[in-house]
Amino acid sequence: MDIRNIHLVYFSATFTTRKILREIARVMGGNVIEHDITCGRPSAKVMVDGEHDVLVAGAPVYAGRVPRQAAEALRAFSGNGGPAVIACVYGNRDYDDALAELQDIVDRQGFKTVAAGAFIARHCIFNDVAADRPDTDDMRKIDNFATECARLLASTPDVSALPEPTVKGNRPYKESKALPLFPSADAELCDGCQTCARQCPAGAIPEESPCQTDGDKCISCGRCTVICPRHARAFRGMPYEQIVDKFVKANAVRREPETFFPAPSTAQRHDAP
Fold it and tell me: How much is the pTM?
């Protein structure tokens, strides 16, 4: 297959998923058409040419699942049997069923998943977990993954003949049980610029009162904590303080990327080299 266009689609609240997906697309080569679905789906359906175009799609892992907002936005893309490379990004705890769920989402949209990867980035709530990731070694493994994706597609004239990789995960998926932890604003630091409210993927921050957070809507993605120009927003308070040390300790051991490719019979799981 001759790659002409890469449709790069990502949900990336704290920008690490975007960083990883952009690197995959860069190494794979081709003209990159970028779709940021973090704050909503495209206004019109996107048809991806199955003959020469590739979907590269990624999302973070929240409570072991693909964010609902990302799953809904991905329904705007249609594949016509074309190949998809997928990636989930998680904060060094586990990606649980998220990669399997992402595979099912893109397959339902008419794509053929040909490769998949699970990569690590700084945890969006507990920032001391995987604090410096993706690091140099991660980026090398991401490049190796993308190189193998490009090689696989270049050597495959008929993508439909490829078996899909078997990724880690359960079907049915685990029930998503997020921790009830939400960022709050320091009223003395907040200057009311409304940046957080305008860019909240869940619409959980009212523009008229940007120091507030609607806990019924908040998905704890951490976006407001990284985009606030005054650093006024953070995860804090008694519920957070009661769990942070335990969580950091429980997830201190470094986890490594995992990648999945087709095999002649049973697809194999690989620790990325």
Answer: 0.93
- Examine the domain organization and report whether 205 and 97 are in the same domain: no
Residue 130 lies in a domain: yes
Is the backbone peptide bond immediately before 172 cis, with ω within 30 degrees of 0? yes
Do 122 and 257 share a structural domain?
Answer: yes
Q: Which domain holds residue 140?
A: 5-173+253-271
80 assigned to some structural domain: yes
pLDDT digits (tens, 9 = 90+) for 203-224: 999 999 999 999 999 999 999 9
Looking at 24-111, which runs of residues are DSSP E strands?
31-36, 46-47, 53-60, 77-78, 83-90
Rounded Cα–Cα distance for residues 242 and 141 (Å): 35
Greatest C-alpha distance within the chain: 61
Q: At what angle do helices 136-154 and 16-28 cross, to 10 degrees?
A: 40
Please report which residue ranges of 33-160 form alpha helices under DSSP H: 68-73, 98-108, 136-154
- Shared domain for 114 and 227, answered yes or no, is no
Q: What is the pLDDT of residues 127-176, one digit of tens each?
A: 999 999 999 999 999 999 999 999 999 999 999 899 999 999 999 999 98
Do residues 18 and 12 make contact, with C-beta atoms less than 8 angstroms apart? yes
SS3 140: helix
Residues of 4-34 as b/e, b for ≥16 C-beta within 10 angstroms?
eebbbbbbbbbebbbbbbbbbbebbebeeee
